[in-house]
Write a structure and sequence with these properties.
This protein has twelve helices and 20 strands. The protein is an alpha/beta fold. Helix 3 runs parallel beside helix 4 and helix 4 packs across helix 7. Helices cover about 30% and strands about 20% of the residues. The longest helix is centred in the middle third of the chain and has 18 residues. Strands 8, 9, 10, 11, 12, 13, 14, 15 and 16 form a nine-stranded parallel β-sheet that branches. The structure holds dihydropyrimidine-2,4(1H,3H)-dione and zinc ion (2 copies). Dihydropyrimidine-2,4(1H,3H)-dione (DUC) binds next to loops.
């Protein structure tokens, strides 16, 4: 006992399973003791009246992603991870997107170069497989899974990204053989293309029609098809950014049938609606994302998915573009049709305060489910547990201290990202992260991200126990 670098004293600790009064002794970046009367340390952090939680893990963010001619994403790794730290996160999982004709290794080289020396919190990449050539499927993917890139996303929509069912089956087969987890963007490409053309022909081109071009059946059908394809291969999958009860019910039914199908939802599906995109000017572009926000009934359904555990992870899908910017939402083409509005909204900094305030403070979920949804399940799902995602002896001292009583109005400046707006401007929030610690070092205190940038490190990951085929665990 004793000889700690840091003690966090006087707080209430919560994990995904328990809530208890304890001090935390930290040594060499790891949790070394949990208890009372831990003695002295070089640094003592007073957490009296505060909650001491595992640092958030946001397993779905996009930074520095090439986004089409003339379009620039608002966050690289510095500002993206700064906002993550400001919002109580200690690890983020951005995507490394393969372009057609590119190898995965080439893509990774670019993303690693972007991230090197820039990050405030720890990072690890998912791969996006957009060109599943024989070489990618037979050699690159298996080698990369062995190297710790143990999850990949596939798209069922978007020009240049959408895989055919045959390609999806091939990627799923590689996942089954290698123990990787497949994440799926489930929307029907042909249905969207048809509806976009139709709406444009009718002169319905404002940002609001983005939502109308991708209605619930588009997502429900693709979710059902993705689950069916995974069932054929007998491989676990995770459906990302689920926006409504019909897609949720596809996942729930699969789970009831014993399939390993996981689901993720995001803040935009809890607190925004498609009506928020309605605006005679271009303001609706601020909320253009896919799938789009739906209606209040869908919000209630997404809460049902959270409360019943059908959704195991809650992520931001942070995909930021500046609004007042010709390289962002207001690029010249965007004024001619919603088709050209870059797709995605910022959220990495706002994710946890929204879930805490709307979930815990309003009594929809308890603190332990909050921890599970915001950190522990992400670590378990993506091969980072128990190093990350919990407060336990030997785990990295990745900790967020929360003031559960802090009330504030959400404004963009609190979030410290590279965008020029937040879709959640003006939300009344109860509960706020006041300190973020990564591997024993304070990276955010009272809203100030204290750096240095580059402290955040790259994490290679184990295979997810949840990606093991049925019967294996
Ligand atoms: N899918 C994402 O995961 N993020 C942003 C846009 C999209 O289609
Ligand atoms: Zn997606
Ligand atoms: Zn995304």
């Amino acid at each position: 006992m004793g000889g700690f670098d840091t003690i966090i004293r006087g707080g209430t600790v919560a994990t995904a399973s328990d809530t208890f009064r304890a001090d935390i002794g930290i040594r060499d970046g790891r949790v070394a003791a949990l208890g009372l009367d831990l003695g002295e340390a070089a640094e003592v952090i007073d957490a009296t009246g505060r909650l001491v939680l595992p640092g958030g893990i946001d397993s779905h963010v996009h930074f520095a992603q090439p986004s089409g001619p003339g379009i620039v994403m608002a966050d690289g790794f510095e500002t993206g991870t700064r906002s993550a730290a400001a919002g109580g996160n200690t690890t983020v999982l951005p995507f490394c997107v393969q372009k057609r004709g590119q190898t995965l290794r080439e893509a990774l080289k670019g993303y690693h170069a972007e991230a090197a020396g820039q990050c405030h919190v720890d990072v690890s990449f998912h791969l996006v497989v957009a060109d599943p050539t024989e070489q990618v499927l037979g050699q690159e993917l298996p080698a990369l899974v062995a190297d710790g890139y143990t999850s990949f996303k596939v798209f069922m929509t978007y020009e240049g990204m959408a895989l055919t069912d045959l390609e999806m089956l091939r990627v799923m087969s590689v996942a089954r053989e290698t123990g990787a987890l497949v994440m799926i963007h489930a929307e029907n490409f042909d249905a969207i293309r048809f509806l976009v053309d139709k709406l444009e022909q009718e002169g319905k081109t404002s940002p609001y029609y983005h939502a109308i071009s991708r209605p619930i059946p588009v997502e429900r059908e693709a979710t059902h098809r993705a689950i069916s394809l995974a069932e054929l291969i007998d491989v676990p999958i995770l459906i990302v950014h689920v926006s409504n009860g019909e897609a949720l019910d596809e996942i729930r039914r699969a789970q009831v049938r014993g399939l390993k199908v996981m689901g993720e939802t995001c803040p935009q599906y809890l607190v925004l609606t498609e009506d928020d995109l309605k605006d005679l000017n271009m303001e609706g572009a601020k909320l253009v994302c896919s799938p789009p926000p739906r209606d209040e009934a869908s919000q209630a359904e997404c809460w049902r998915g959270i409360e019943t555990g059908v959704f195991s992870v809650f992520s931001s899908d942070h995909c930021p573009f500046r609004y007042e910017d010709v390289q962002g939402k207001l690029n010249p083409n965007a004024r001619t049709s919603f088709r050209w509005v870059p797709n995605g909204i910022p959220g990495v900094g706002a994710r946890l305060p929204i879930l805490f305030s709307e979930g815990v403070s309003k009594g929809r979920i308890d603190l332990n489910r909050f921890v599970a949804l915001s950190a522990t399940n992400h670590a378990k799902t993506y091969g980072l547990y128990p190093r990350k995602g919990t407060i336990a002896i030997g785990s990295d001292a990745d900790i967020a201290i929360w003031d559960p009583e802090r009330r504030l109005t959400l404004t963009h400046d609190l979030l410290q990202d590279g965008s020029d707006y937040t879709p959640y401007e003006g939300m009344e929030i109860t509960g706020w992260p006041v300190l973020t610690m990564v591997r024993g070092r304070v990276v955010m205190r009272d809203g100030a991200v204290v750096g240095p940038k580059g402290y955040g490190t790259y994490l290679t990951r184990e295979r997810s126990p949840y990606a093991a085929v049925r019967g294996a665990n």
